[in-house]
Specification:
The complex is a heterodimer. Chain A is mainly alpha-helical. Chain A has helices spanning about 35-50, 70-95, 105-120, 125, 150-160, 185-200, 205-220, 220-225, 250-260, 275-285; strands at about 15-20, 25, 30. In chain A, helix 3 crosses helix 10 and helix 6 (about 185-200) crosses helix 7. Chain B is α+β, with helices and mostly antiparallel strands. Chain B is about 40% helix and about 20% strand. The N and C termini of chain B lie far apart (about 85 Å). The chains are: A mainly alpha, B alpha+beta. At the A-B interface, strand 3 and helix 1 of A face strand 1 and strand 8 of B. Strand 3 of chain A pairs parallel with strand 1 of chain B, so a sheet runs across the interface.
Chain lengths: ~300, ~500
């Protein structure tokens, strides 16, 4: 209880007793009764909430509420609705050959957007959010493909993986020239110099010329006599500007010593075929995708 | 000066019809029960102005959605439409898209500044005349007066027990209020959907559920706020009265009892001398007409919405007793201080505050008008890929990706081409098209996103310097040749 009521002289109304700036006081006026009743009604409303919505923890569970509402089921319902809305597109993708999807702009857009989302969930951990790759993980934006960059090949790679243990996986192994003592360290240094010279990097010319013969004997079978690689067996092109494991002398020597042999999981079973098709379309549309083999690429006149 | 009735005692209207202010000083408890106000009808200049304003504002409110505006096929022929379904606002010839919402922001800023200007010059004009709460409350009180009679009749009706007469009068009043509320909510939903169409839908029960929901909400709130809560909205819910202190200054108009002329107050008998006494005869006519139930003679108060009805009431009395009008009048603080004879000697309208508001209003209004008149019918935005910033190609060339969004604001399909400049030797490659220079169709009132790549071969790459090269992307409408350009950059590795 307030022992002494402070009364404002001008209005004769009680004040709250707080003073600001020496003379500024707040009148203690009553609340309107309806205001107070609205406040009580809000409290009563809360009791209603406890009854109809999940509210109170019990020792092992919680009160479920009469409405049977749960955020998980609400999300599940929303997801189901979203899936249902996608069904017509997915059915159309399943029916259409992958090369023809681009002819239907609406379907192509759906496949690309959906593919981007699936890519972010499943592929981005290795290949990066923008598919930019990293050392040992291919950049999917560029035009350099170990196993071919047309839609069919990308789809096959995603479906069965590379060295993944899947029965139909793409699997070749470069010999471990160093670890298995196939080549001497000096030979490896020479052949690395030669390989780097193919893409016009600065090399020790003498070592490179020594390496040419070693290359022809040991490497040309897979990488081709001119080092252009072979996408049928996943043999990298050694003459271009793109190096999966780096282009330094040390990195190239290490590749020759160990054979590298990167691995990509097979996605069949983890992703449904339509999802795989969508990811393939997305990856192909990142700019490095190659035209289908039966078409011929338009000749580009270099400026 | 104190007028204490003892602790925790409230002033109760004793039914004699004598008007007392409802915010008289009292000792407080935690709450006060609502004391119903029975405003008496006022007659005079300001009452007539208020009727006129009510008629005009309600007229605009009810008529606006029904004004037609021919826009052509596929568009609603409604002059004023808040088309949320298609994310656009239509005002006659102006069509505002969601991404141009800054026009709405500008309109709101402009409204606020106009409110500031009016308040600085003439006080709470908005509250007293134009505020929807005031207009609808006025309407509801008029309806109540129509069924139940004026102040004294209503007081008697409320104090007597229930009778058949009371029952039908109250019922008629509330039914009328609900009908007005229904008309109010009904009028509002027409702003969001083509009015004639929606009217038929509402009547036949085929309107979208959301229309019925909002109709219900606005009906309920109009009935509650206009019919039941009335002055409580202004006193307890609205922030505007609290902001007055900052808006008004010594030269702003406000309604005041001019105590220089009125005091000492007291009753006056016919033929008594007016010497040595004030003109106020303490008849409480000003309190009886007040819609917020206060006594204006206590000075400026938060509850006063400055509706000027007390001026009318007092002038009527002054005419009757043969004293000059304007004992209660629109005056200014400066004027009250110098206690001149007239209520508004030397009313200064032009002062720094009003000059500043006027300049701001002119500037913002001018800016909005200028940008409306110069609105492009094509909007282009360019977003370079950021992840990865650039891609190294197998031949040693470089590639960047760009997404260009083309918004077609016209009501016809248009065809665009994209070209780049500032990057010698660059080659374009579109994802959705096989050729290098495709024609893109953009549907009416649509935004189309086009993804393409710009590549430099190794020799062209040697021509650029540094990590970032400025370039320009130009989008051209092939029908009229008008083009829109956007600057962007071509990224590359650190040299």
């Amino acid at each position: 209880m307030v022992s002494q009521k402070r009364i404002d002289e001008v209005t004769g109304t009680e004040t709250t007793g707080h003073v600001w700036d020496g003379d500024l006081m707040e009148l203690n006026k009553p609340l309107p009764r309806w205001w107070l009743h609205v406040f009580y009604a809000c409290i009563a409303w809360a009791f209603g909430y406890w009854l109809v919505y999940p509210a109170w923890p019990t020792l092992t569970d919680y009160t479920k509420g009469f409405l049977g509402h749960s955020q998980r089921s609400a999300v599940a319902k929303d997801v189901a609705m979203a899936k249902a809305a996608q069904d017509q597109y997915r059915a159309a993708i399943a029916k259409t050959p992958i090369a023809d999807i681009k002819k239907n702009p609406e379907l192509f857009e759906f496949a690309r957007d959906g593919g981007a989302a699936i890519f972010g969930d499943n592929c981005a951990p290795c290949h990066g959010r923008g598919a930019q790759g990293a050392v040992g993980y291919p950049n999917l934006n560029d035009d350099d493909w170990l196993w071919g960059g047309d839609l069919e090949n990308i789809q096959t790679t995603i479906t069965h993986g590379i060295r993944s243990g899947d029965p139909k996986t793409r699997d070749t192994a470069m010999p471990r020239f160093g670890l298995d003592k196939i080549l001497e360290p000096a030979q490896i240094r020479d052949v690395a110099n030669y390989v780097r010279s193919l893409s016009h990097l600065n090399v020790d010319a003498a070592a490179a010329s020594r390496g040419a013969a070693i290359f022809a004997d040991n490497c040309a079978a897979c990488h081709g006599p001119d080092g252009k690689g072979n996408t049928d067996i996943g043999a990298p092109n050694l003459t271009d500007a793109i190096w999966l494991y780096g282009s330094s002398q040390e990195a190239v020597m290490r590749s020759i010593e160990t054979g590298r042999g990167g691995m990509m999981p097979a996605w069949t079973g983890r992703l449904d075929p339509v999802s795989i098709e969508m990811v393939a379309l997305y990856v192909h549309s990142l700019g490095g995708g190659k035209p289908e083999p039966e078409k011929t690429a338009p000749a580009e006149a270099p400026k | 000066m104190t007028m204490l009735d003892g602790p925790n005692k409230f002033i109760v209207d004793n039914g004699s019809g004598e008007a007392k202010p409802n915010n008289a000083p009292i000792q407080t408890s935690i709450y006060a029960s609502h004391k119903k106000i029975y405003p008496k009808e006022a007659h005079g200049t300001f009452r007539n102005i208020k009727w006129a304003v009510t008629a005009i504002t309600l007229g605009i409110y009810y008529m606006l959605p029904w004004i037609r505006w021919h826009r052509g096929p596929g568009l609603p022929d409604q002059a004023f439409l808040l088309d949320f379904a298609n994310q656009r606002l239509l005002f006659g010839p102006i069509e505002i898209w969601a991404q141009e919402f800054y026009y709405v922001t500008g309109a709101l800023v402009l409204s606020a500044l106009c409110l500031f200007l009016v308040t600085a010059i003439a006080g709470r004009m908005w509250c007293g005349y134009a505020c929807p709460q005031t207009v609808w409350t006025d309407l509801m009180i008029a309806v109540e007066r129509f069924w139940q009679g004026d102040r004294n009749a209503r007081l008697r009706l409320d104090q007597n027990g229930w009778s058949f007469e009371k029952l039908w009068k109250k019922t008629a009043t509330h039914i009328s209020w609900v009908l007005i509320a229904l008309a109010t909510g009904g009028a509002l939903v027409f702003y969001f959907r083509d009015a004639p169409t929606l009217a038929v839908e509402l009547a036949t029960g085929t309107a979208p559920p959301v229309a019925y929901v909002f109709l219900g909400i606005f009906t309920l709130t109009t009935y509650l706020l206009g019919g039941i809560a009335r002055e409580q909205v202004c006193i307890y819910m609205c922030p505007w009265p609290r902001i007055q202190g900052a808006m008004l200054d010594r030269d702003s108009l406000f309604i005041s009892y001019r105590d220089v002329r009125g005091e000492p107050r007291g009753s006056h008998k016919r033929d008594e001398s007016w010497e040595g006494r004030g003109d106020c005869i303490d008849c409480k006519a000003c309190v009886a007409v007040c819609p917020t139930g206060i006594d204006i003679r206590n000075g400026a108060q938060l509850e006063c919405i400055q509706c000027a009805l007390c001026i009318d009431a007092c002038n009527e009395i002054m005419d009757r007793i043969g004293r000059p009008r304007e004992l209660i009048a629109y005056t200014t603080a400066a004027n009250l201080e110098c206690a001149t004879k007239g209520p508004r000697d030397g009313w200064r309208i032009v002062r720094p505050r009003t000059i500043l508001y006027s300049i701001l209003i002119t500037a913002i209004g001018g800016l909005m008008l200028w940008s409306l008149l110069n609105r492009a019918d094509t909007q282009v935005s360019v977003a370079p890929d950021r992840n990865p910033l650039f891609v190294l190609l197998s031949d040693g060339g470089l590639r960047n990706g760009y997404t260009v969004k083309i918004a077609n604001k016209l009501q016809s399909t248009r065809h665009f081409r994209i070209a780049i400049s500032g990057l010698p030797g660059a080659r374009l490659q579109f994802i959705e098209f096989d050729n290098q220079d495709p024609v893109m169709d953009v549907a009416p009132a649509e935004v189309r996103a086009v993804k393409f790549f710009v590549s430099l071969n190794p020799s062209a790459r040697k021509e650029i310097k540094g990590e970032s090269t400025p370039m320009t992307i130009t989008v051209t409408d092939i029908a009229d040749g008008k083009s829109t350009s956007r600057s962007t950059t071509f990224s590359g590795p650190v040299p």
